[in-house]
């Protein structure tokens, strides 16, 4: 019985190690509060200049700068100034990091 328990224990140990190693990566990809609401208007990417900007095409820095400008009333908009005022700088950073494309990677 000892011989059969050892391979099982090794598999369980490897599985547990894999889950522990993956935990930070999963946490990093979890959507911050508000992100899914952003995608309601900004996920479609039509070739229409009057449509809301497609966030998948923008970098995190560009998104953060726009949200900060809306928040400080330096940029005009219909609903975005009101929405941006509801987020702290930290929340804006988290949203931008999650929604923006990484440098060099199309999203």
UniProtKB/TrEMBL annotation:
Q: Which InterPro entries match?
A: Cyt_c-like_dom, Cyt_c-like_dom_sf
Keywords (A to Z) from UniProt: Heme, Iron, Metal-binding, Signal
The residue ranges crossing the membrane are none
SUPFAM superfamilies recorded: Cytochrome c (SSF46626)
User: Any coiled-coil ranges, and where?
Assistant: none
Species of origin: Methylobacterium durans
Signal peptide extent:
1-27
Please report the stretch or stretches of sequence annotated as the Cytochrome c domain: 18-103
Superkingdom of source: Bacteria
Is Electron transport one of the keywords? no
| Keyword Signal assigned | yes
GO function terms (MF aspect): electron transfer activity; heme binding; metal ion binding
Q: What is this protein called?
A: Cytochrome C
């Amino acid at each position: 019985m000892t011989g059969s328990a050892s391979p099982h224990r090794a598999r369980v140990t490897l599985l547990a190690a894999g889950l522990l190693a993956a935990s930070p990566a999963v946490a990093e990809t979890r959507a911050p509060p508000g992100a899914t609401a952003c995608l309601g208007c900004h996920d479609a990417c039509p070739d229409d200049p009057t449509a809301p900007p497609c966030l998948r095409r923008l970098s995190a820095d560009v998104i953060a700068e726009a949200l900060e400008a809306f928040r400080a009333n330096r940029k005009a908009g219909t609903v975005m100034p009101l929405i941006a005022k509801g987020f702290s700088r930290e929340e804006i950073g988290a949203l931008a990091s999650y929604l923006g494309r990484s440098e060099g990677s199309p999203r």
